[in-house]
Write a structure and sequence with these properties.
This protein is mostly helical. About 80% of the residues lie in helices and about 0% in strands. It has one domain: HPT domain (Four Helix Bundle (Hemerythrin (Met), subunit A), Up-down Bundle), CATH 1.20.120. Helix 4 (about 70-85) packs antiparallel against helix 5.
């Protein structure tokens, strides 16, 4: 199940590069991701969704997710980014929920990864 959510090759490379700071990198990604989700929800919270805010948050979330090996999450964020760039906002809330569900799975993987590294 977890292999569908995170590329462990990317994580292995990050661990090699970051060494003892690897758990901090995971924590930073998780914290940043929570902020991106809040931005996505905030952009949808008005009667007229903020296209620019949605696009920027989806773009940033896509990049950080890809860098951390959360490729499915990055793909979903990229799809939302493309849709907002085309001004296709009718189902934006549904896309944010897809992103949120995938992030929950990714969070679980990273929580396990942090525990594995610390022990």
């Amino acid at each position: 199940m977890t292999a569908n959510h995170v590329d462990y090759g990317v994580l292995s490379n990050l661990q090699d590069v970051m060494e003892g700071e690897y758990p901090t990198l995971i924590d930073t990604f998780l914290s940043d991701s929570e902020q991106r989700l809040e931005q996505l929800h905030h952009a949808l919270s008005t009667q007229a969704p903020s296209v620019d805010e949605l696009t920027m948050a989806a773009h940033s979330f896509k990049g950080s997710s890809g860098n951390m090996g959360a490729l499915r999450l990055a793909e979903l964020c990229g799809q939302l980014e493309e849709r907002t760039q085309r001004r296709e906002l009718a189902d934006a809330e549904e896309w944010v929920h897809k992103i949120e569900r995938e992030f929950a799975a990714v969070r679980h993987v990273f929580d396990l990864e942090r525990q594995r590294f610390i022990q």
